[in-house]
Amino acid sequence: MNLKEALKGKLTIVEFSRLKTAFDNVGNIAIIEIDEELEPKEKMIAQTLIDMHKPITTVVKKVGIHKGELRLQTVKILAGKKTKETIHKESACRLKLNVEKVYFSVRLGTERLRISKLIKPDEEVLVMFSGCAPYPCVLSKNSSAKHITGVELNKDGHEYGLENVRLNKVKNVDLYHGDVRKVVPKLKKKFDRVLMPLPKSAEDFLDIALGTVKKGGTIHFYDFLHIDDIPKSALAKIRKACKIAGKRYKTLSWNKCGSHAPRTFRICVDFKVLN
Fold first, then answer.
1. Per residue in 26-38, pLDDT tens?
2. Among 15, 103, 164, 242, which residue is least crowded by beta carbons within 10 Å?
3. What is the mean pLDDT of residues 145-171?
4. Which residues of 51-72 are buried (b: 16+ CB within 10 A; e: fewer)?
5. Cross-strand bridge partners of residue 12
6. Rounded CA separation 182/49 (Å)
7. Is 90 helix (H, G, I), strand (E, B) or coil?
8. At which of 49, 83, 117 does a domain end?
9. 59 falls within a domain
């Protein structure tokens, strides 16, 4: 039985037309969207979802959009346990987080595993904007990386990241709290692979990535693009940054890794820096 079938007789035809049945499942928390017209019945809809999916113990709804420098999403608890904290399981990892205090995309699970399979033995990896450390933990558990460094501006995200490193007992990860632009140069280190999973404004940090990647190293650049701009807009940003930095590069591949809005997708461009 799907959600619409479970709600037969409880919603009008007009309300059914407004019902969004897709949801993100982060640990035991389901994150849903409720149209304004359905708000009088939102708690009933949320409880129905819990009744249908036993692993779900809390249902929250999105309030507004991701906003601010930290791209946080306000949520409201509709049904179940009164908590916004959960442990999400992914690729042999357990990731503890508060869905309101930390930016985390469950839809990037496949992408994180894709990157882990590209890492060669003994690579030094930098994860910019590491959040609660999903990339560092998944890469550590699923690759032969020598060492993984993560940098995160959000203090709550950083603290959850430290806890997740301990929770997963990974020994080759170090996390730093602060602005990538300030922290990375102080590391005085070059990396074989640099990840930039901040699709909203990652182009503003391409100069830092280009300055810290080794000759022959790989950068994974993420961007949100309308379907008509894929991948040319992202490639233009990379071309401009490399020209300014005096770097030669080679595009290896590009991949869609989740939808963001109607006809808008998160993409990742993998490119090698040649000098």
1. 999 999 999 999 9
2. 15
3. 98
4. eeeeebbbbbbbeeeeeeebbb
5. none
6. 44
7. strand
8. 83
9. yes
Who wins on pLDDT, 260 or 26? 26
Please indicate, yes or no, whether residues 180 and 119 belong to a single structural domain of this protein: yes
Q: Is the dihedral of CA 178, 275, 145, 137 positive or negative?
A: positive
The CA distance from 95 to 159, in Å, is: 12
pLDDT for 199-224, tens place per residue?
678 999 999 999 999 999 999 999 99
Contacts 24+ apart (CB under 8 A), 164-168: 164/93, 164/94, 164/95, 164/96, 164/132, 164/133, 164/134, 164/137, 165/133, 165/136, 165/137, 167/94, 167/96, 168/93, 168/94, 168/137, 168/140, 168/141
The answer to whether 44 and 67 have CB atoms below 8 angstroms apart is no
Which pair of structure tokens corresponds to residue 218? 């790989």
Torsion sign, CA atoms 107, 236, 253, 227: positive
CA angle, residues 117, 208, 172, in degrees to nearest 5:
40
User: Could you count the other beta carbons within 10 Å of the beta carbon of residue 21?
Assistant: 12
Tell me the one-letter amino acid at 146: K
| CA 14 to the chain's CA centroid | 34
- Are residues 7 and 123 located together in one domain of the fold? no
Residue 92, domain member (yes or no)? no
Hunting for tokens 């959040």 — which residue is that?
Answer: 131
Provide the token pair at 55: 């692993």
